[in-house]
Design a protein that fits this description.
about 400 residues, alpha/beta, about 50% helix, five-stranded mixed β-sheet, elongated, about 15% strand, 3 domains
Length: about 400
């Protein structure tokens, strides 16, 4: 919007120093206040049906009834506005709603900072330093609490009928609980849609990670419309595969190979780790299950005397470790590890690393959800050539993938 030079010259008639323009009683603040009040007067004129000082038209009973002062915050300033009133108290201005103390742009700034992991104290300091505005912790909590209704709608939204791949994992976060700080489990389910896009299906909170609660999570997915999951990628938590298969008996459950390798190397001395890791690679890089079994046998013959628990563990979990071997390489890379969701967890941890502990579950949930909104904008497909992959999956899982 272009403002004429004549208007600008008139505004700057008494200008002598920067303080006259930018100071407490300066031109910019006065102009901002005057414009807002002019708009409010215009809204009231429209509401009552006639202009100020005009004779009231016949049939109209409502009239102007003075003004009331209201303190308003913006991202740049805070000041008092004279809000016009009407006799019937039915006037609710669009510009400044009843009970509104801040403009939306100011709230957006607070939410954007909170989404990037800034603490309440950080936000207070930033607003004070940049805008010279004092903001209380209660105000910041009030603003960010407005997100909770959005989270509730998101958490209960209907989901797709089928997800070719779902990654399941839990994130540990320190939260105050009954006067103590404990590590709570925030359960995450990351789905890959039929179109090949990643979608976080939900966030669930429990005091501990366990297969019993995972069944609650999976049951909720079922209740929200997920009829089928082709492949579920999980860590090695005991009872996890059984929890999934109880709800989705046709789902192939793939245990994370990377988790299995890490657990195996915990038993190995530092000088042997490189060699043991190389020998394990022969197992999970095998062309098929037959070759993988042969490599596991060779591994056992070589290392059982020194580290017998490794081959025992791989044998015990064999049925959960080998499903990925039946697929082509592109799909193998996407499902042999839960890296897709662990990468998400790493991004979320960056948002909370400077916090000692959250005061409530909701406080942590707000940061995770708002952070997720930013993180998801940069997501890429888990499989680069998705059109080829979905055709391959359609061969392995006939009549289970809808035709797009």
């Amino acid at each position: 919007m272009t403002i004429s030079n004549e208007i600008l010259d008139e505004l700057l008639t008494n200008y002598k120093s920067p303080e006259d323009l930018l100071g407490e009683g300066g031109i910019l603040k006065s102009l901002n206040k005057a414009l807002l009040e002019r708009v409010l007067d215009g809204e009231l004129t429209h509401h009552v049906g006639y202009k100020k000082h005009e004779q009231r038209p016949e049939g109209i009973t409502n009239t102007r009834n003075g003004k009331t002062k209201k303190h308003i915050k913006t991202k740049d300033d805070d000041f008092e506005l004279a809000i016009p009133r009407d006799r019937e108290a039915s006037f609710d201005p669009i510009l400044v709603r009843k009970h509104q103390r801040r403009f939306d742009s100011f709230d957006d700034k607070i939410i954007a900072m909170y989404a990037r992991g800034m603490t309440v104290r950080d936000i207070q300091g930033y607003l004070k330093e940049i805008y010279g505005t004092e903001v209380s912790p209660d105000l910041i909590s009030t603003v960010t609490d407005e997100v909770l209704d959005e989270i509730q709608d998101w958490q209960t939204r209907p989901l797709d009928k089928i997800y070719p791949i779902v990654y399941l994992d839990a994130l540990r976060i320190k939260v105050r609980h009954n006067g103590h700080i404990i590590n709570k489990a925030f359960y995450l389910a990351l789905g890959v849609t039929v179109e090949g896009q990643k979608e976080l299906l939900g966030i669930w909170i429990a005091e501990n990670e366990g297969a019993k609660f995972w069944m609650t999570v999976i049951t909720e997915l079922k209740n929200r419309g997920v009829e089928d999951i082709l492949i579920a990628c999980v860590d090695g938590l005991k009872g996890f595969p059984e929890a999934i298969e109880a709800i989705y008996p046709q789902t192939k459950v793939q245990l994370c190979i990377v988790h299995m390798i890490r657990n195996s190397l915990k038993y190995v001395s530092w000088k042997d780790r490189k060699e043991v890791a190389s020998d394990l690679k022969e197992i999970y890089n095998a062309i098929n299950e037959t070759q993988a079994k042969k490599s596991l046998k060779q591994f056992a013959e070589k290392w059982d005397e020194k580290y017998p628990i490794i081959a025992i563990s791989w044998t015990k979990n064999w049925e959960g470790l080998i499903p990925f071997l039946q697929f082509p390489s592109e799909i193998r890379k996407a499902i042999y590890t839960t890296n897709a969701i662990e990468s998400l967890n790493r991004s979320l941890r960056k948002l909370i690393k400077h916090r000692g502990a959250f005061p409530t579950d909701d406080a942590a949930l707000k940061v995770l959800y708002l952070g997720l909104r930013n993180i998801s904008k940069k997501w890429t497909m888990p499989i680069r050539n998705w059109s080829q992959a979905i055709n391959q999956l359609n061969i392995f899982f006939p009549e289970r993938i809808p035709i797009l």
